[in-house]
Amino acid sequence: MDKNNESRFERGTRALSDIDGEGGRKVVDSLADIAPDFARYIIEFPFGDIYSRPGLDLRSREIATIAALTALGNAAPQLKVHIQAGLNVGLSRDEIVETIMQMAVYAGFPAALNGLFAAREVFQEKHSLAA
Amino acid sequence: MDKNNESRFERGTRALSDIDGEGGRKVVDSLADIAPDFARYIIEFPFGDIYSRPGLDLRSREIATIAALTALGNAAPQLKVHIQAGLNVGLSRDEIVETIMQMAVYAGFPAALNGLFAAREVFQEKHSLAA
Amino acid sequence: MDKNNESRFERGTRALSDIDGEGGRKVVDSLADIAPDFARYIIEFPFGDIYSRPGLDLRSREIATIAALTALGNAAPQLKVHIQAGLNVGLSRDEIVETIMQMAVYAGFPAALNGLFAAREVFQEKHSLAA
Amino acid sequence: MDKNNESRFERGTRALSDIDGEGGRKVVDSLADIAPDFARYIIEFPFGDIYSRPGLDLRSREIATIAALTALGNAAPQLKVHIQAGLNVGLSRDEIVETIMQMAVYAGFPAALNGLFAAREVFQEKHSLAA
Amino acid sequence: MDKNNESRFERGTRALSDIDGEGGRKVVDSLADIAPDFARYIIEFPFGDIYSRPGLDLRSREIATIAALTALGNAAPQLKVHIQAGLNVGLSRDEIVETIMQMAVYAGFPAALNGLFAAREVFQEKHSLAA
Amino acid sequence: MDKNNESRFERGTRALSDIDGEGGRKVVDSLADIAPDFARYIIEFPFGDIYSRPGLDLRSREIATIAALTALGNAAPQLKVHIQAGLNVGLSRDEIVETIMQMAVYAGFPAALNGLFAAREVFQEKHSLAA
């Protein structure tokens, strides 16, 4: 990788670690054996390009991501990573729960229910780790 | 409708008008001949119950809705209503564009593209009305 | 086509005409230039195999189809064909509207709204034809 | 909650218990710690407002819900609750299987297959309980 | 079943076994108790009609199926069967991984990630079987 | 943009023009006023990173994209661009039609039907341009 890719990669690595913390690193590591280039793309595009942009704060970006993943309803592991990410960037549990509940209006009650159950798992893990 | 339904209905009517303005009223009116009760439900549940809750500000709620409708990609008219609603509650055009662009990561580039084209239509209508 | 395909084909043609009437024939004809075999498959599998099965009456089958197409929200032309089909097999306008409204619970309010607008178009066409 | 909310709540509680039985109560209870208000909304809107409406019988309403959840394919737990609900309101196993099989036409064979596997689980649980 | 249905059924059985091997047979067998007719439809329509058509080679057909199931993101078991099917008809692991990675562009990074994890499971099972 | 971004950008611009031709350029140009950075991302990530990768030929990549966009069913304009792209990279009309028809198995008949209608539009435009 030449200098500029390093800089996108470095910027993305920093953003991934600031936002997703452990969860993000685990996803990237889990790709090492099957698709290492895809791990690099995740760091460079979503985190190096998108999340690093000015113009929308990280709290708003995580609200958008939690809303979208709850509504799509087919990416439970990634939703849990971003519920944790929401807490990491300063969203309260209430703000996350409100965001997920609102999805009942746009994607139906089952999508919102499954999002709330994902949130409970994340909150409980966090609690037991804190204990 | 007895007193309490009136109060949910009144609260929802106020929220619908504060948030969606003209767009919301048009949607409700458009249901008068086919499903008037559904028009009432839209006022009572999404707006009287959900958007009226404390715990998440309206700017964040519209970011969540714009993100979800962009990601789902099958509700263009409602996305346009909520892009306008986002402007109504104080989101900047940049914040709306950033929210939609971010959906390329979670729902693919076509969903984000179609969201950006919806935003352009809303921004242009607003501009021409202002002119 | 040998005898048995004719029999599936004939059974499907009868079912298609009983259920979808004009709308079904138009869809099949519209495939003649691009994918004639697909027109045959539509007649043979959905109509010759599935809709011709005993065990669920046609009214219930059209309720299932109207519900699914409203919830999926990405097949407006087919939803309109099946709203007409619902009327053809004896569903009342109210039963169709109730089915679509219920989808707000499972697929969100925008999906239900767009389904209701499709129903209004079909009901109005029917009305103007009747006039 | 004042009188009318109680009445929506009471009507919804009765409908939830008539339709979903144990399954519904479990879902509502499971929300107590994370989003108690959402448990109330589930009782009030889907069950107090929608399922309590005249104009479509409960057997037809469950066919619509089983069809939609099978087609959407991203809410397996809720599909299982409503397959049980279908049995509770008088649908036969055959009618439920026919409804799910038909979804192969509108949402593809994998969605129908996963719906059939959900039905088998529900039928087997019921059988073993009955044994 | 008369002669021609046998021939669709036989052609489909051959195609199912050539393409999906064990995985396909298991799916069909798993339907014996709940929906035996659906097992027959899977053999007759997807395999007897579609996969048996000239005009697109099996490698291309499996690329199309792996792409679609990755993008839809709600049919993990069927995606795994078709990743194995891709290997059976001569796709390399790299070609399968490239197909899945590309879906990040059209269905988002979570859909591609979950597709890659499904591929890893299939490749590892194959490896351990080979060991 | 420093040297390396230029190189990703240049590689992507070449790939976009080889694959999508006019259609791709139009999409990129259409973003100039609303989200110019997103136009750059489309060139850099999908085309500069993904489509430029060795390991899967462009014909296979377009089969994957046509399959996915047909199955998702919520991005008709992008599907049309990629049906044209398929012709540009050497797919025959038959191969494109076979790919779309196969999606009836994985995403249902309406998704395949709407894909076939998109293909007809593209083939007709091409024909009339050729005339």
Automatic annotation (TrEMBL), chains A, B, C, D, E, F:
Keyword check for Flavoprotein: no
A GO molecular function held by the record: 4-carboxymuconolactone decarboxylase activity
Cited Pfam families: CMD (PF02627)
Enzyme Commission number, as recorded: 4.1.1.44
Full protein name: 4-carboxymuconolactone decarboxylase
Residue ranges occupied by any Carboxymuconolactone decarboxylase-like domain in the UniProt entry: 36-121
Keywords in alphabetical order: Lyase
InterPro entries: 4CMD/NDH-1_regulator, AhpD-like, CMD-like
